[in-house]
Amino acid sequence: MPVDFLNGEYWWLPTQFDDELEITPKPLPQHLQFSAGPENLFYIIDFEPFELMEAFEKLGANGEKVYIEFYPQVPVERMKIRVYNQKESVELKNVHIE
Asked: Is the dihedral of CA 57, 61, 67, 71 positive or negative?
């Protein structure tokens, strides 16, 4: 899946991470695309930078690992995205999804 990051980097990432890629630190995403779900729907996601940075700063404040999780929905605009650590999570509200 192609990913543009807030720091200007561009990576092509697999949808399933192996152990090494999972522990590799990554910049915050700005834009990404992927297919998912039983219908193999295509999702285009643009994050609101300040909302994403705020969630990562809050959840990673004590050095905890922070993750992004996607819940594919139909229609695609109803997808839920959350940022979480081992103790709490934040649902992103200002995400543009096509």
From this structure: negative
Q: How far is CA 87 from CA 8, 51, 61, 91, 97, in A?
A: 30, 19, 12, 14, 27
Q: Among 95, 47, 40, which Cα is nearest to 72's?
A: 40
Sign, CA torsion 18/86/89/60: negative
Q: What's CA 97's distance to the chain center, in Å?
A: 12
C-alpha gyration radius of the chain? 13
CA 64 to chain centroid, in Å, comes to 17
Q: Peptide bond before 49: cis, by omega within 30 degrees of 0?
A: no
Q: What is the DSSP letter of 76?
A: G
Write down the pTM of the prediction: 0.85
Question: Per-residue pLDDT tens for 9-61?
Answer: 998 887 777 888 878 888 999 999 988 767 777 889 999 999 999 999 999 99
